Structure formats: C-alpha cells, structure tokens
Amino acid sequence: MNSPILQLLVLAGIAVFLILRLRSVLGTRDGHEPSREVQGPTTQRPHNLEVIEGGPDRDITDHVPEDSESAAALAEMKRAEPSFGVGDFLSGARGAYEMILMAFERGEMDKVKDFLSPDVYASFCEVVAIREEKGLTIEAEFIGIRDMTLSNASFEDGAAEITVKFVGELVSVVRDKDGDVIEGEPGKAKRQKDIWTFERIMGADDPNWRLVATGE
C-alpha cells in the first residue's frame, strides 16, 4: 500500500473518532425539540374594576340608617338643593347651638333673632324677661359639645326639618339681686341635653336654618 493511501485512511479514522466523540458530549436532536428558553411565572391580568353607581350616599348613611325615612328625606333635600350636605349642616348646627345657647344664657336674644322662628324667639325672650324682673343674673361659659346626633329628618313641599340631639357642657351660675349664688357652682361644669329642630326652605336665597322647636 503506497504512502498517500495510507495517509488518507489515517485521516479518515481520525475524523470518524472526532465525530463519535462530539456526539457523546453534545447529544443529538431529532425533529423539532422544545425550546430551552427560560420563562418567568405566568401572571394574570388584573380584573377591570367596575364602578357601580347608585350606591349608598355616605354623607347620609354616616348619620342615619340607610333605609330609614330620615335617609329618604335627606336624599330629597339633596335633590332639591344639590349644594346641601348633611355633614355641612351638622357643622353649622354645632356652631348655632353654642351661639344661641350662650345668647339665651346672657339675655342677648337680639343677636340671634334671625336664627329663630318667631315662636321660639318669643319663648326665649319671655324667660329672659322673667329673670330680669327677679333681678337674676347669669354667669355662663360654654365648654363644648360632648355628643351630637341627627335624630330625625323630614321634607315636605320644599320645607326641610332636621332634629338634632345635643349634649353640651357649660358652666352656668345664677345669682340673685344681692349677688348670692342660687343655682350652679362657680368653676364647675354641668351637662345640658337639648333636642332642637331646625327648618329651612330648600333652594331659597336665605341660607340660614332657623330653630323652630326645642325640647329635652
């Protein structure tokens, strides 16, 4: 066998050896093998949140039961006057309670006349007049409102009425004409409970609510 043929056979043997060696290391692929790409965990698309209109009005249900007659009346007030808010009303009622109560204690009814119905104004003035006739004087200091709740609401023919229960705290001392204390104790606060009903024509130019009834 001549030298060129021998060299060719040697090279062929080396090539076969290398092919077999590579197959044992890399393996083989038959057909379409699945991709070896790494995939992260699957994520679900967030659900679209549906906004449901016509739900409960928290401005109302925070103060009265949702299915109550008072809630229905308050809703009618809002329809009649969209700018009306129950929370805003109660904030105003809180200030009105202090203002009217202290005006009564001090006998200064003219200062709050516009916030009272004629009947309530006349009743308060009568009590003040009796005190003055007896020579009584009152020293009063308002401490604050300890509790306030909306107890009832009604709406009829455009007229709105809202009743509020107040628990106020104040220092009130009554002295006779000689200056002697006949009621109360200086520096000692007492609690006073009142039930007041306010009225207003919804949609009217006058924004003031008027005190139309009082009770305990």
Report what the structure shows:
It is a single chain. This protein is of the alpha+beta class and 216 residues long. It has a single domain, classed as Nuclear Transport Factor 2, Chain: A. The protein is 36% helix and 27% strand. It has 5 helices and 5 strands; from the N terminus they run H-H-H-H-H-E-E-E-E-E. Strands 1, 2, 3, 4 and 5 form a 5-stranded antiparallel beta sheet that branches. Strand 2 and strand 3 form a beta hairpin. It is elongated, with a radius of gyration of 43 Å. It starts with a helix and ends with a strand. The relative contact order is 0.12. About 18% of the residues have low confidence.
What's the multimeric state? single chain
Provide the domain count.
1
Poorly predicted regions? 15-52
The helical percent reads: 25-40%
Question: Which architecture does the CATH hierarchy give at level 2?
Answer: Roll
Structural class: alpha+beta
Looking at the structure, the CATH topology is Nuclear Transport Factor 2, Chain: A
Distance between the termini: 133 Å
Largest sheet: 5 strands, antiparallel
Q: Could you report the average pLDDT, rounded to the nearest whole number? A: 82
Strand content: 25-35%
Count of DSSP helices?
5
Order of helices and strands: HHHHHEEEEE
Number of strands: 5
CATH class: Alpha Beta
Our Rg estimate from Cα atoms comes to 43 Å
